[in-house]
Amino acid sequence: MKRRHLFITFEGVEKSGKSTHIKNVEKFLLQRNLKVKSFREPGSTKIGEKIRRLLLTPENDMHPFTEFLLYAAARAQFVKEVLSKALKTYDVVLSDRFYDSTLVYQGYALGLGLKEIKPIVEFLSFYIKPDLTFILDSRPEETLAGARKKDRIERRSLEFHRRVRKGYLLLAKMEPERIKIVRRRSKEEVEKEIISYIERLI
Ligand code: TMP
Protein backbone atom coordinates (compact mmCIF):
# COMPACT_ATOMS: atom_id res chain seq x y z
CA MET A 1 0.00 0.00 0.00
CA LYS A 2 1.40 3.38 -0.98
CA ARG A 3 -1.10 5.21 1.23
CA ARG A 4 -2.52 3.92 4.48
CA HIS A 5 -6.22 3.97 5.15
CA LEU A 6 -7.71 5.02 1.88
CA PHE A 7 -11.21 6.44 1.81
CA ILE A 8 -12.98 6.01 -1.53
CA THR A 9 -16.50 7.19 -2.29
CA PHE A 10 -18.90 6.41 -5.13
CA GLU A 11 -21.37 8.98 -6.40
CA GLY A 12 -23.80 9.42 -9.25
CA VAL A 13 -27.38 9.86 -10.35
CA GLU A 14 -30.00 7.27 -9.36
CA LYS A 15 -29.43 3.70 -10.58
CA SER A 16 -25.99 4.50 -11.92
CA GLY A 17 -24.65 1.10 -10.84
CA LYS A 18 -22.72 2.18 -7.75
CA SER A 19 -23.42 -0.92 -5.67
CA THR A 20 -22.35 -3.33 -8.44
CA HIS A 21 -19.05 -1.51 -8.84
CA ILE A 22 -18.46 -1.24 -5.10
CA LYS A 23 -18.82 -5.03 -4.81
CA ASN A 24 -16.35 -5.46 -7.62
CA VAL A 25 -13.80 -3.09 -6.06
CA GLU A 26 -14.23 -4.88 -2.74
CA LYS A 27 -13.43 -8.20 -4.41
CA PHE A 28 -10.38 -6.73 -6.14
CA LEU A 29 -9.00 -5.29 -2.88
CA LEU A 30 -9.61 -8.50 -0.93
CA GLN A 31 -7.67 -10.40 -3.59
CA ARG A 32 -4.80 -8.03 -2.83
CA ASN A 33 -5.04 -9.07 0.83
CA LEU A 34 -6.23 -5.66 1.94
CA LYS A 35 -8.70 -5.12 4.79
CA VAL A 36 -11.80 -3.54 3.28
CA LYS A 37 -15.02 -2.16 4.72
CA SER A 38 -18.02 -0.79 2.81
CA PHE A 39 -20.75 1.58 3.96
CA ARG A 40 -23.71 3.34 2.45
CA GLU A 41 -25.15 6.78 3.02
CA PRO A 42 -27.54 7.71 4.40
CA GLY A 43 -27.39 4.72 6.70
CA SER A 44 -24.77 2.37 8.11
CA THR A 45 -25.83 3.14 11.70
CA LYS A 46 -29.07 2.28 13.49
CA ILE A 47 -30.29 5.87 13.67
CA GLY A 48 -28.92 6.57 10.18
CA GLU A 49 -31.06 3.79 8.69
CA LYS A 50 -34.11 5.28 10.47
CA ILE A 51 -33.30 8.71 9.06
CA ARG A 52 -32.88 7.09 5.62
CA ARG A 53 -36.41 5.71 5.85
CA LEU A 54 -37.73 9.14 6.85
CA LEU A 55 -35.97 10.74 3.90
CA LEU A 56 -36.94 8.21 1.25
CA THR A 57 -40.57 7.43 2.14
CA PRO A 58 -42.62 9.16 -0.57
CA GLU A 59 -45.37 10.36 1.84
CA ASN A 60 -42.91 12.33 4.02
CA ASP A 61 -43.26 15.78 2.57
CA MET A 62 -40.57 18.08 4.00
CA HIS A 63 -38.95 21.46 3.53
CA PRO A 64 -35.61 21.46 1.61
CA PHE A 65 -33.83 22.64 4.78
CA THR A 66 -35.29 19.76 6.80
CA GLU A 67 -34.12 17.36 4.11
CA PHE A 68 -30.64 18.91 4.10
CA LEU A 69 -30.32 18.73 7.87
CA LEU A 70 -31.55 15.13 8.02
CA TYR A 71 -28.91 14.03 5.49
CA ALA A 72 -26.32 15.98 7.49
CA ALA A 73 -27.55 14.43 10.76
CA ALA A 74 -27.28 10.90 9.36
CA ARG A 75 -23.76 11.71 8.17
CA ALA A 76 -22.64 13.16 11.51
CA GLN A 77 -23.79 9.95 13.21
CA PHE A 78 -22.10 7.83 10.53
CA VAL A 79 -18.76 9.65 10.91
CA LYS A 80 -18.79 9.63 14.71
CA GLU A 81 -20.14 6.12 15.21
CA VAL A 82 -18.40 4.11 12.51
CA LEU A 83 -16.39 5.91 9.83
CA SER A 84 -13.69 7.50 12.02
CA LYS A 85 -12.93 4.15 13.62
CA ALA A 86 -13.06 2.26 10.32
CA LEU A 87 -10.56 4.65 8.76
CA LYS A 88 -8.09 3.67 11.48
CA THR A 89 -8.82 -0.05 11.29
CA TYR A 90 -9.17 -0.90 7.61
CA ASP A 91 -6.76 -0.43 4.73
CA VAL A 92 -9.53 0.79 2.46
CA VAL A 93 -12.97 2.13 3.33
CA LEU A 94 -15.57 2.39 0.57
CA SER A 95 -18.76 4.40 0.81
CA ASP A 96 -21.79 4.41 -1.44
CA ARG A 97 -22.27 8.22 -1.35
CA PHE A 98 -20.82 10.78 1.07
CA TYR A 99 -20.92 14.56 1.37
CA ASP A 100 -20.72 15.26 -2.37
CA SER A 101 -24.29 13.90 -2.58
CA THR A 102 -25.50 16.64 -0.24
CA LEU A 103 -23.61 19.35 -2.12
CA VAL A 104 -25.15 18.18 -5.39
CA TYR A 105 -28.67 17.04 -4.42
CA GLN A 106 -29.53 19.65 -1.77
CA GLY A 107 -27.04 22.40 -2.59
CA TYR A 108 -27.23 22.42 -6.37
CA ALA A 109 -30.29 20.53 -7.63
CA LEU A 110 -32.66 21.52 -4.83
CA GLY A 111 -31.29 25.04 -4.85
CA LEU A 112 -30.08 25.64 -1.29
CA GLY A 113 -26.80 26.88 -2.76
CA LEU A 114 -23.66 24.82 -3.13
CA LYS A 115 -21.37 27.54 -1.79
CA GLU A 116 -23.75 28.35 1.05
CA ILE A 117 -24.08 24.83 2.42
CA LYS A 118 -20.49 23.68 1.79
CA PRO A 119 -19.06 24.97 5.11
CA ILE A 120 -21.91 23.33 7.05
CA VAL A 121 -21.52 20.06 5.13
CA GLU A 122 -17.78 20.01 5.83
CA PHE A 123 -18.28 20.91 9.49
CA LEU A 124 -20.84 18.11 9.96
CA SER A 125 -18.54 15.61 8.22
CA PHE A 126 -15.89 16.63 10.73
CA TYR A 127 -13.64 17.64 7.84
CA ILE A 128 -13.13 14.04 6.72
CA LYS A 129 -12.53 14.07 3.00
CA PRO A 130 -12.40 11.12 0.58
CA ASP A 131 -9.01 10.43 -1.03
CA LEU A 132 -10.75 9.44 -4.22
CA THR A 133 -14.31 9.86 -5.49
CA PHE A 134 -15.85 8.21 -8.51
CA ILE A 135 -18.80 9.76 -10.24
CA LEU A 136 -20.54 7.06 -12.22
CA ASP A 137 -21.86 9.34 -14.88
CA SER A 138 -24.98 8.47 -16.81
CA ARG A 139 -27.94 10.29 -18.28
CA PRO A 140 -30.84 10.14 -15.81
CA GLU A 141 -33.35 9.68 -18.64
CA GLU A 142 -31.64 6.34 -19.35
CA THR A 143 -31.18 5.07 -15.80
CA LEU A 144 -34.55 6.14 -14.41
CA ALA A 145 -36.65 5.17 -17.42
CA GLY A 146 -37.53 1.61 -16.39
CA ALA A 147 -37.34 2.13 -12.62
CA ARG A 148 -40.34 0.97 -10.63
CA LYS A 149 -41.20 1.60 -6.96
CA LYS A 150 -39.44 4.95 -6.90
CA ASP A 151 -38.52 6.52 -3.54
CA ARG A 152 -39.15 10.14 -2.54
CA ILE A 153 -36.05 11.46 -4.28
CA GLU A 154 -36.27 9.23 -7.36
CA ARG A 155 -39.82 10.49 -7.94
CA ARG A 156 -38.58 14.01 -8.56
CA SER A 157 -38.74 15.46 -12.07
CA LEU A 158 -36.32 14.54 -14.81
CA GLU A 159 -35.25 18.19 -14.66
CA PHE A 160 -34.17 17.71 -11.03
CA HIS A 161 -32.14 14.60 -11.91
CA ARG A 162 -30.55 16.41 -14.85
CA ARG A 163 -29.45 19.14 -12.42
CA VAL A 164 -27.99 16.44 -10.16
CA ARG A 165 -25.87 15.22 -13.06
CA LYS A 166 -24.83 18.77 -13.91
CA GLY A 167 -23.92 19.40 -10.27
CA TYR A 168 -21.65 16.38 -10.18
CA LEU A 169 -19.87 17.46 -13.36
CA LEU A 170 -19.38 20.89 -11.81
CA LEU A 171 -17.88 19.40 -8.63
CA ALA A 172 -15.50 17.28 -10.71
CA LYS A 173 -14.26 20.42 -12.44
CA MET A 174 -13.66 22.04 -9.07
CA GLU A 175 -11.63 19.09 -7.71
CA PRO A 176 -10.18 17.14 -10.64
CA GLU A 177 -7.49 15.51 -8.49
CA ARG A 178 -9.96 13.82 -6.17
CA ILE A 179 -13.06 13.41 -8.31
CA LYS A 180 -12.98 11.13 -11.34
CA ILE A 181 -15.85 10.96 -13.80
CA VAL A 182 -16.40 7.46 -15.11
CA ARG A 183 -18.65 7.49 -18.14
CA ARG A 184 -21.31 4.83 -18.67
CA ARG A 185 -20.05 2.05 -20.95
CA SER A 186 -20.00 -1.72 -20.66
CA LYS A 187 -19.70 -3.00 -17.09
CA GLU A 188 -16.24 -4.44 -17.87
CA GLU A 189 -14.89 -1.18 -19.27
CA VAL A 190 -16.17 0.81 -16.28
CA GLU A 191 -14.66 -1.74 -13.87
CA LYS A 192 -11.32 -1.54 -15.63
CA GLU A 193 -11.22 2.24 -15.41
CA ILE A 194 -12.13 2.29 -11.71
CA ILE A 195 -9.52 -0.32 -10.84
CA SER A 196 -6.83 1.52 -12.80
CA TYR A 197 -7.37 4.65 -10.67
CA ILE A 198 -7.31 2.62 -7.46
CA GLU A 199 -4.16 0.77 -8.46
CA ARG A 200 -2.31 4.08 -8.55
CA LEU A 201 -3.01 4.54 -4.86
CA ILE A 202 -2.42 1.07 -3.42
P1 TMP B 1 -29.06 5.60 -2.71
O1 TMP B 1 -30.37 5.26 -3.30
O2 TMP B 1 -27.98 5.78 -3.70
O3 TMP B 1 -28.68 4.73 -1.57
O4 TMP B 1 -29.21 7.09 -2.08
C1 TMP B 1 -30.30 7.47 -1.39
C2 TMP B 1 -30.93 8.71 -1.97
O5 TMP B 1 -30.63 9.84 -1.19
C3 TMP B 1 -30.57 9.07 -3.40
O6 TMP B 1 -31.75 9.52 -4.04
C4 TMP B 1 -29.64 10.25 -3.24
C5 TMP B 1 -30.15 10.90 -1.99
N1 TMP B 1 -29.14 11.65 -1.21
C6 TMP B 1 -29.28 13.03 -1.09
O7 TMP B 1 -30.19 13.63 -1.68
N2 TMP B 1 -28.38 13.70 -0.32
C7 TMP B 1 -27.38 13.07 0.36
O8 TMP B 1 -26.60 13.71 1.06
C8 TMP B 1 -27.25 11.63 0.22
C9 TMP B 1 -26.17 10.91 0.95
C10 TMP B 1 -28.17 10.97 -0.57
List the helices and strands and how they pair.
Elements: E1 6-12, H1 18-31, E2 36-40, H2 46-56, H3 64-89, E3 92-96, H4 99-109, H5 114-124, E4 132-137, H6 140-143, H7 158-174, E5 179-183, H8 187-199
Parallel strand pairs: 1-3, 1-4, 2-3, 4-5
Helix pairs in contact: 1-8, 2-3, 3-4, 4-5, 4-7
The chain binds thymidine-5'-phosphate.
The site of thymidine-5'-phosphate has 13 residues, from α4.
Provide tags for this entry.
8 helices, five-stranded parallel sheet, 202 residues, alpha/beta, binds thymidine-5'-phosphate, 5 strands
Give the oligomer, counting copies of the same chain as homo and different chains as hetero: single chain
Largest sheet: 5 strands, parallel
Widest sheet: strand order? 2-3-1-4-5
Outline type: globular
What class do helices, strands and sheet pairing give?
alpha/beta
How many E-type strands?
Answer: 5
What is the ordering of alpha helices and beta strands? EHEHHEHHEHHEH
List the uncertain runs.
none
- Whole-number average pLDDT? 95
- The value of Rg in angstroms is 16 Å
Helix content: 40-55%
Q: Give the N-terminus to C-terminus distance in angstroms.
A: 4 Å
* Strand proportion: 5-15%
